[in-house]
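Ticket closed. Logging final result for Nitroreductase family protein.
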Amino acid sequence: MGWERADATSARGLTPLLEERFSTRVFDPGYTLGVDDLRPLLEAARWAPSAGNSQPWAFLVGLRDDETHRAFVPLLSRGNAFWVPRASAVIITLHRSATDPGSDMLYSDYAAYDLGQSVAHLTVQALAAGLQVHQFAGFDHAATALAFGVPDNWTVTTAVAIGRPAPVESIEDAEPSLAQRERRLRDRNPLQGFVFAGTFGSPAEIAPAPGSR
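Final structure:
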């Protein structure tokens, strides 16, 4: 049985890449990504917009079983320790949280936002390549910063697992509870819950898409 994403009715009508986006925890542990496979994803991140073109992001890239990957895996939280190592690559994301010494760039307040944009671009590029991406924060951030020599003016923010999705059945025996979670339907807040006009909390007059939940 092939991989199937959990259905999300209200996502229908989006561009297909976004409609098919799903933060899977079931990756094919036999699928390998190389440097040439990752380069377009990182280029997509590089060309993301940022405040004043400050580009306040950095990435620590680990391919499965390389030195970076081996150093990072022990720092995963218990809930992520099974599925993250099965991904083909893990990217640790960082944002510049304070101005570099000697720099006149004053965009640190927007750095985390800009990092998010760059990872979103990376995600869409990955989807275009037939991959899936799962962003997560469950790992020891302080130990990660120490292990990789992260400067004080940079903040370890999240990590991104990248790989080819696998059928949920492939983890059924090893992780039945995780398999059950993967089968849950995706859901999102309705537009009326966060799209406002006039005053905060007053829903804008935007009709919900058919089937919105």
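Residues 56 and 111 are 5 Å apart (CA to CA). No further action required.
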